[in-house]
Amino acid sequence: MAKELPGYGTINVPKDREVPFGAVTPAPVCTQDLFQTSNWRMKRPVKEDEKCTRCLVCYMSCPDACWEYKEAEDEMYWIANFCKGCQICIQECPTGALTAAPELDFPDGVVRLEKPF
Amino acid sequence: MQAFDYKFQKFEPLKSFKKAPELEVYVPGHRTCAGCGPALNYRLVAKAAGKETIFIGPTGCMYVANSSYLCTPYACSWIHAQITNGGAVASGIEAAFKVLARKGKHTGAFPNVIVMAGDGGTVDIGLQAMSAMMYRNHKVLFLCYDNESYANTGIQTSPTTPYGAATTFTPPGKEIPEGKVLFPKDPPQLVIGGHPAVKYVATTTVAHPLDLMNKVRKALTYEGPTFLHMLAPCPKGWLFDEKLTREMARLAVETGMWSMYEWEDGVYKYTNVPKKYKPVSEYMKHQGRFAHLKPEHIAKMQAFIDERVKAVKERVAIPIPTPKQTA
User: Fold this and answer.
1) What does DSSP assign to residue B268?
2) In this structure, what CATH number is given to the domain that contains residue B301?
3) Which of residues 48-87 of A touch B (CB under 8 A)?
4) Domains contained in chain A, CATH given
5) Which of B29, B70, B247 sits opposite A25 (nearest CB)?
C-alpha cells in the first residue's frame, strides 16, 4: 500500500511486511531469511581443501555462523547468504587454508537483494 | 519438608569443538556490524545453553541491531527489557516459572534464564536491578558482554571504558589530551564483593570459545544467581580492523588488560596467565581509540595494569595441594 509523505514522494510497504503495533513475528528456524547480509561483503573467504584440517576454528569464530561442518561428507561448507565479509575466519585459520578474494571476481558476486533488508 | 524438584537442566562440560552442540540458537541473519564481537559472544552463549532458554535482552547493541524490521535471529524465547531492569524482568520470569512448576502447570525442564546485558545494562544504568536480583537469590545467569562503550548509540563512554579511550563523550583535545581520564570499574569484583548469594563468577573472552561455553554451562548448573563477564571487542567502537576481533581479545589477555578467572565460593582459579605480560602498547597500537595517546599516558595505563596484575600474581601464588607421587 502506498502512503503519501509530505515532500518525500511515496514509499511502498509490501503487504506481507505490514503488521499492526505489537505484532507477533515467527521465530527463525535455521536461518533468518528475511535479513540476508550477503551484499555487505567486499571480500569472501576461499577455501583450499587440501590444507584444511577440519579443526573447526572458523566455525567457532564466525559471528554469523557461516561455516558449517558436514560430518557425512567430512567437509566445511560456507554459507554465502549471510557472510558479511569480516575475514575473522581468514585471520584465525591456523593452517592458512583460507584466503580473501575480491567479491567482484565471482559471477554471483554482490547480488542486489530483492528485499531492501 | 522436602525441597521441590524443579527439574533444572544438567550440563556436561564440553571437551572439544567437535563435541559442541550443533544447533544454532542465535541464527545467521542479523544487523550487527561485520566482525561483531558481541554477536560472536551471543552465538556461543546460545549454542552452549541450548534451545530451552529464555534470553532477556536489556537495551543495547544486541537488542537494537538484532530485533528490528520484524526479524530476529533468536530461535528460542527472547524478551526485551529496558536497559535499567534486565535483572528485574529475569527475577519475575524465574519466580513465575517456579510457581507454575510447583502448581503442576509447567511440567517440562526448567528453562535457563539468561540476561544478556551490555556493560551499560550491567554496571551503569542496570546496576540496581542486577544487584537486587542477586540479593533475592534467583536462579538467573547474568551475563555482561563488555564492549567497553555504549556502542549502539554512537560509542559513548561507559564505566568500563578504559583510561585514555576516545569516545563521543570523551574526545581528546587541547584541555584533556588523553580523552577519558577516569579508570574503569571492575564488574566481577563488584559482584563478588557485595552479593553473598552469588556462588559463581567468571570472566572470559570471545577468543576462547571452549572456555566461554564451558563457563556458561557451569554457571547454568548453579541453583542461585551467577555472573559472567565477557570481553567482546567492537571493531566500530574501538576502531580496529574487523578481522582482528578475536586477536584483540587474545591480546587483552596477554597484556593483562583482561584477566581470565573463575571464582567459586571464595576460591579463585586463574587460567591463561602469561609467564611474562606483554606491554599494553602492544594492545593499544591496533586501536584507533588510543591513537592520540602520548607516552606519558601509556605509562600511566601501564602502571594501572601492573597494579592489577600484581593482585593476579598474589592469587595465583597460593599453592594448590597436589597428591604426592610415590615412586
Assistant:
1) E
2) 3.40.50.970
3) 55-57, 59-66, 79, 81-82, 84-87
4) 29-105 (3.30.70.20)
5) B70
